[in-house]
Design brief:
By secondary structure, the chain is α+β, with helices and mostly antiparallel strands. It folds into two domains: 4-223, P-loop containing nucleotide triphosphate hydrolases (Rossmann fold, 3-Layer(aba) Sandwich), CATH 3.40.50; 237-351, RNA polymerase II/Efflux pump adaptor protein, barrel-sandwich hybrid domain (OB fold (Dihydrolipoamide Acetyltransferase, E2P), Beta Barrel). Helix content is 24%, strand content 32%. It has eight helices and 20 strands. The strands form four sheets. It has a six-stranded mixed beta sheet, sandwiched between helices. Strands 13-12-11-14-20 form a five-stranded antiparallel beta sheet. Strand 7, helix 5 and strand 8 form a beta-alpha-beta unit. Helix 2 (92-102) crosses helix 3 and helix 2 runs parallel beside helix 4 (136-148). The radius of gyration is 25 Å and the shape is elongated. Residues 13, 16, 18, 36, 38-44, 192 line the site of adenosine-5'-triphosphate.
Length: 356
């Protein structure tokens, strides 16, 4: 098995714990994203896996082999790091061939592999161009081709798309994902963009202050975040301070709603938050029959974002964001009185963000 295992990895810079006792297994053939705000330790953890940084404590094992003391150039991982830029004085083909040359692969095999890789990244006609004559997206693709040239078992990508504009970035997300799946190559990617992680990853590792806050499939983390930090970082959400007593949730405006009777409150009863995603809030005209968990409110902001309409609703004591469609709620306007329904099945109680 070629999975990567991190055991109690810790990295301290003076008194700062950049990475703090991280345990993780990256499954074979999967794409895993390290996701978290700036300074949470993503890059440091990635550099430790790459061998570019030495951990203060802990072990890195790959395919059953302890790599903790093995230098970067002996790990045989493919890497796309911003610090490992393409060689500007070389052509595209020379850049892609570089790792093969280092490994003394014979010239014929080098040339065949380069042709194959340039076809894979859809730049076969650019082999003889200098990399300085390429667009940002083309350069990123060449960097990826170079990283996979020697068929590494593990591919490490540190914010590989950060320099690209939004449209190209999305196209490249799809390309990298397709390539990764086609080659079945175990890949770790660092990003601070939650949408990017959601669209690309098999598993997301959410990091906070050097620690892992949660590991899981994108949708599981979105639907079932372990706490307020994760809920807030992944997707848009209404997060309200609430009280909880026997299935009844007390909202900030004094209103009360019911949640699933099986729901358990997080441990600290004074620090509970209610999470409901905007797409789960149902908006109805004020004249509709108020059902269970409906709250009267007034629309204070409406934004048409193409596929959906985003509305802010003042519910006397707090505001809710709702994502709806013109079909569901025609004619939604600022100033309109509405009923906002918070369906019990979509409400989740989570622990508040810890005070720092
Ligand atoms: P970003 O998204 O901004 O790149 P990150 O999540 O990748 O952030 P790291 O670069 O891993 O975070 O940094 C984690 C912490 O370690 C930060 O507090 C950072 O200031 C600190 N740190 C990183 N490298 C060093 C270093 N060489 N010397 C001292 N402190 C460092």
């Amino acid at each position: 098995m070629t999975h990567l295992t991190l055991q109690s990895i810790t990295k301290r810079f003076n008194t700062t714990y950049a990475v703090d006792h991280v345990d993780l297994t990256v499954p074979d053939g999967k794409l895993v994203c390290f996701l978290g705000p700036s300074g949470c330790g993503k890059t440091t953890l990635m550099r430790i896996i790459a061998g570019l940084e030495t951990a203060t404590a802990g072990t890195v094992t790959f395919a059953g082999r302890d790599l903790t003391q093995v230098p970067a150039n002996r790990r045989d991982f493919g890497m796309v790091f911003q610090s490992l830029a393409l060689f500007p004085h070389m052509t595209v083909a020379e850049n892609v061939a570089y790792p093969l040359r280092l490994r003394r692969v014979d010239r014929g095999a080098q040339s065949r592999r380069v042709t194959e890789l340039l076809e894979m990244i859809q730049l076969p006609h650019m082999a003889q161009r200098k990399v300085t004559q390429l667009s940002g997206g083309q350069r990123q693709r060449v960097a990826i081709a170079r990283a996979i040239a020697s068929s590494p078992k593990l591919l490490l990508l540190d914010e590989p798309l950060s320099a690209l504009d939004a449209k190209l970035r999305e196209a490249m997300q799809v390309e990298i994902r397709l390539l990764q799946q086609r080659l079945g190559i175990t890949t770790i990617m660092v990003t601070h963009d939650q949408r990017e992680a959601m669209t690309m990853a098999d598993e997301i590792v959410v990091m906070e202050k050097g620690r892992i806050a949660q590991v899981g499939k994108p949708l599981d983390i979105y639907r079932d975040p372990v706490n307020e930090f994760v809920a807030d970082f992944i997707g848009l959400g209404n997060i309200l301070p609430v009280t909880f007593d026997r299935g009844q949730v007390g909202l900030p405006g004094g209103q009360s709603i019911a949640v699933n009777s099986a729901m358990r409150a997080p441990d600290a009863p004074d620090d509970i938050r209610l999470l409901i995603r905007p797409e789960d809030v149902c908006v109805r005209p004020a004249t509709a029959n108020p059902g269970q968990n409906t709250l009267p409110g007034k629309v204070t902001f409406v934004r048409d974002v193409g596929a959906s309409i985003e509305a802010t609703i003042d519910c006397e004591g707090f505001t809710l964001t709702a994502a709806t469609t013109p079909r569901e709620t025609p004619d939604l306007r600022v100033g309109m009185r509405v009923l906002a329904e918070l369906p019990a099945h979509a409400c989740k109680l989570i622990a508040a963000r810890t005070a720092h």
